[in-house]
Specification:
two-stranded parallel ribbon, mainly alpha, 2 strands
Length: 605
């Protein structure tokens, strides 16, 4: 009965799919194949299933699995082969992941089921690769190795699976595929190594990319333009700049003169590598862009973004010149076609450059032209836009944008903390209600607010008009003991001094000393600076006495700051403060309670 069903359904389904193919009705072809795969016409024949579903007939199933298909089953398999080939082609052409998954499940279930040739399996691999399913693409290749016949994976199949893994930066899996390729003695070509090298370049693993390039050279495979392009980009991420500069010179020689190259991507790679090098190379990157434009070609967005990065890196040395150049590049991008239109990375680098040059008005003007959704979606655009709006007096716009940034879905912890700081210390008057709302949102997310949240809230209480001193005390004394140092303690000390409670300040410092909180000296210096700015001389002298009593010390920069404040208003009490400061010892920057300073290398952003 089952065999009769197979004999009827398979030829009928094949004819129906052929008729739909002639009519161009792809959806009907898909529906027919799905119906066939779920009907009794599946290949439920003796000796074709990978695993028996019957536990009671284990012995019979084992003996059956060792047998070969009968002539009648071979006829059925031939029909299935044609149907599968057609379905694989359609799933690739129309990007039907559901069909590709169904085909893969059939191939995994029936060990004699196969497609017509390697091209059909390649169609299936392409579907899974485009759908970011590299594991399924690898399973297709595994089935090809398990099947008998000539449809074995070639270099093209391995390259397609490598591409699926490397585009997702799953480099450990990509290396495993390459090792299997080596084990099965499948020859690798330039495309194979380019995918591995470019994958490691995107994953910021330049040493592994360089290792594969060296292996490629040992094998005698000539590096094409794509490999050289990837290796030029790799040099930008090498920490050893001497090695990076030597490799860049070598790859530039192999690639030829970039001014004569017709590949825009190669130009972008050169600019990227130069932008990450030294100051001289960065200026060369800008000159390279001008050379490209002088040849009559239009730079693309990638090239302009690299130039924007250079202006940001050089703006400290030449604030006016680099900021003007960044604005000029931005307006050039707007004047060109879609291939040069600015993207979020463009605006991020432009904003950095303008912020470093203190050109807040221009930054606010550019931000005003952007869609509000873009500023809210990208924190690194919204944050500088808010700060610039505050600096140029556009507080209403800053407040509205800040509210959208806080209330958007999936707001990060750092954004919540920064918004609390802005609400409490940058707005006039501070918005304490908004800051407390943010603390509630943080708790709803299951996070715990750190010292920074409470430090900002306390500063908002101090800066409010009138000052909310009692609220500040409530906030401070409800803090966990671990948070009662640093900035919160400094604000609490200010509040105590404001109420004439200098004994409370001494008690607060004693509590910090008892729990080995080393921030006491810095807190008192901050407190002293605030009192000198507000010309509260009596309290300032009292704070100096507390510093002397606790045998605390100042850094040289802190002492210079205090002296500058005193010399700015040299009244009698101020000079007395200066005389008493002379009694204090001086400690090195970063030194705490006699612990020597550990010098750290400054890491480039």
């Amino acid at each position: 009965m089952l065999a009769a069903g197979v004999d009827v359904w398979l030829p009928a389904a094949s004819n129906v799919m052929y008729a739909y193919a002639k009519q161009g009705d792809v959806e009907a072809e898909f529906e027919t194949f799905q119906a066939l795969a779920s009907s009794t016409a599946q290949v439920q024949m003796v000796g074709t299933q990978n695993k028996s579903s019957s536990k009671g007939k284990k012995k019979d199933a084992t003996s059956a699995s060792a047998s070969s298909p009968t002539p009648q089953q071979e006829k059925h398999l031939l029909l299935w082969e044609r149907l599968l080939s057609r379905a694989m082609y359609l799933s690739s052409e129309h990007h039907r992941l559901d069909m590709a998954s169904l085909i893969l499940s059939l191939l995994q279930r029936y060990r004699y089921l196969r497609a017509s040739g390697p091209t059909d399996y390649m169609n299936l691999i392409k579907v899974f690769s485009q759908a970011s399913r590299p594991g399924d693409a690898l399973q297709v290749m595994v089935l090809m190795n398990q099947r008998k016949g000539e449809a074995k994976p070639s270099t093209l199949h391995y390259n397609a699976v490598l591409h699926a893994f490397t585009r997702l930066e799953r480099m450990a899996d990509a290396e495993a595929v390459f090792e299997e390729m080596r084990m099965r003695q499948v020859s690798a070509d330039a495309a194979t190594f380019n995918m591995l090298i470019s994958g490691f370049e995107r994953a910021r693993q330049p040493d592994r990319a360089l290792a594969f390039y060296e292996e490629m050279t040992r094998r005698g495979i000539k590096a094409d333009a794509y490999v050289l392009n990837s290796m030029i980009s790799v040099t930008a991420d090498l920490r050893n700049r001497t090695q990076a500069n030597g490799l860049l010179t070598r790859f530039r020689t192999l690639a030829g003169d970039p001014e004569e190259a017709s590949n825009d991507i190669m130009f972008g790679a050169f600019m990227h590598a130069l932008a990450k090098a030294d100051v001289k190379s960065r200026r060369e990157a800008l000159e390279l862009l001008e050379t490209f434009k002088a040849s009559g070609r239009t730079p693309n967005t990638i090239m302009y973004n690299e130039a924007m990065y250079v202006t940001y890196r050089l703006v400290r040395d030449d604030p006016t010149g680099m900021s003007e150049r960044a604005l000029r590049l931005y307006h050039e991008m707007l004047s060109h076609g879609p291939s040069s239109m600015p993207n979020p990375l463009t605006y991020r680098r432009l904003f950095k450059c303008l912020k470093q040059a203190c050109r807040f008005q221009e930054l606010a003007d550019v931000a005003a032209t952007l869609p509000r959704e873009m500023l809210v979606k990208h924190d690194r655009l919204g944050v500088p836009a808010i700060l610039a709006s505050l600096r140029v007096g556009q507080s209403d716009r800053a407040r509205d944008l800040l509210g959208d940034l806080v209330l958007k879905p999936n707001t990060s912890y750092d954004t919540y903390r920064w918004a609390t700081f802005v609400y409490c210390t940058k707005l006039d008057p501070p918005d304490l209600a908004a800051a407390e709302t943010i603390l509630g949102l943080v708790e709803e997310q299951g996070w715990k607010a750190d010292r920074g949240f409470y430090g900002s809230l306390l500063r908002g209480c101090w800066a409010a008009n009138p000052k909310q001193i009692e609220k500040a005390f409530d906030v401070y004394h409800n803090l966990p003991p671990a948070f009662q140092g640093g900035d919160p303690a400094a604000v609490a000390a200010l509040c105590h001094v404001d109420r004439g409670r200098l004994d409370r300040v001494a008690g607060l410092l004693q509590e910090m000393r008892d729990r080995d909180d080393v921030a006491g000296a810095d807190i008192l210096v901050t407190l002293l600076e605030s009192l000198l700015i507000s010309e509260s001389w009596k309290n300032a002298l009292s704070v100096v006495d507390v510093i002397i009593d606790f045998e605390l010390s100042m850094t040289r920069s802190q002492r210079r700051q205090i002296e500058a404040l005193v010399h700015g208003n040299p009244k009698g009490p101020a000079l007395e403060v200066l005389e008493r400061l002379a009694l204090l010892p001086v400690r090195h920057e970063g030194e705490v309670e006699g612990v020597p300073v550990v010098e750290e290398d400054e890491e480039e952003e």
